[in-house]
Amino acid sequence: MQIRPARVEDLAAIRDIYAHHVLHGLASFEEAAPDLAEIRRRYGEIGALGLPWLVAEDAGEVAGYAYCAPYRTRPAYRYTLEDSVYVRDGRQGRGIGRMLLAELIARTSALGYRQMVAVIGDSANAASIRLHARLGFLRVGTLRSAGWKLGRWVDSVLMQRPLGAGDMTPPDALAR
Length: 176
What we know:
Elements: E1 2-5, H1 11-24, H2 36-48, E2 53-58, E3 61-70, E4 80-87, H3 96-110, E5 115-121, H4 126-134, E6 138-149, E7 152-162
Helix pairs in contact: 1-2
């Protein structure tokens, strides 16, 4: 298993992984799977910000991906990121998500960011909650019934962890 930066040629596999989660799961609150052009646009937007977008490659196949985006657009949030981690259906439980998220944490810490937030769809998503907890995230809240998907109300679980020095010191200028 290799964790590496995503490339344009990975985007079709990324789209397929994400489409499965959009159409069959509650991790994403999107209801229609984005097409390849939209995935390409999102990839370009994250890249233009200097933020990492990673894939886990196993025997030539993209087994999962992870990236960060700004948590919010207002300037005071500029040191806080929100992570996204998705693993190919049938490949869960093999440590792929853990490797991706650990690398994402390391890379964004090195860039000077100070907080990472996870907004986890579905309070019953034990695997994602456990993954984040194992990598130092604390559960900081639950937005009850924040979304309606697949015929039911769905919670959002909020988890957070510090990056680098976290809130122990004032931030430096971002290294990007």
